[in-house]
Amino acid sequence: MYYLAYGSNLNVKQMAMRCPDAKPIEAIVIEGWQLTFRGVADIEPKSDAMLSAGIWKITKKCEMALDRYEGFPTLYGKIYFNFEIEGKNQRVLSYQMNRSNYAYPNQSYYDCIKQGYNDFNLNTKFLEEARNSLIPNKYRNFLSF
């Protein structure tokens, strides 16, 4: 079974604690989806967007641990993608929030995701854009990250 991570589950140390049997497979960029924040990471479709993510190979036990971590089915619901992975078309599990309000992530959570981007060798451009899009334009000149 394969799992698509886009938030804190990109972080190899975090996943080792949650899902010790999970194995990182590859980085991926998906057209038509974007990262956003609702206090925590979420994804949503957007025609002109790109989403950086990581693919993990997981077990059923890992899925159960992820369900608990993601607050399934209350906070997050399950969604599925189809990608070619390891030379075959595969059904890939991910999670999407069941709410739609946007909220800025706290710094330690953001740093955890940023480390995950580094773990998967992903460009942090989309991560930074997702966070910065939540800052009203009039305040952007006063903030430094």
Description:
The chain is of the alpha+beta class and 145 residues long. It contains four helices and five strands. The chain has helices at 12-18, 60-70, 107-119, 125-132, and strands at 2-5, 23-37, 41-57, 76-85, 88-97. The chain is globular, with a radius of gyration of 15 Å.
Short description:
The chain is an alpha+beta fold and 145 residues long. The chain is built from four helices and five strands, in the order βαββαββαα.
Portion of residues in helices? 25-40%
* Largest sheet strand order: 2-3-1-5-4
Mean pLDDT: 93
Annotation, overall tally of beta strands: 5
Number of helices: 4
Largest sheet: 5 strands, mixed
Task: Please indicate the percent range of residues in DSSP E strands (runs of 2 or more).
Answer: 35-45%
Element-level helix/strand string = EHEEHEEHH
For the structure shown, list the relevant keywords:
4 helices; 5-stranded mixed beta sheet; globular; alpha+beta; disordered C terminus; 145 residues; 27% helix; 39% strand; single chain
Write the topology of this structure:
Elements: E1 2-5, H1 12-18, E2 23-37, E3 41-57, H2 60-70, E4 76-85, E5 88-97, H3 107-119, H4 125-132
Parallel strand pairs: 1-5
Antiparallel strand pairs: 1-3, 2-3, 4-5
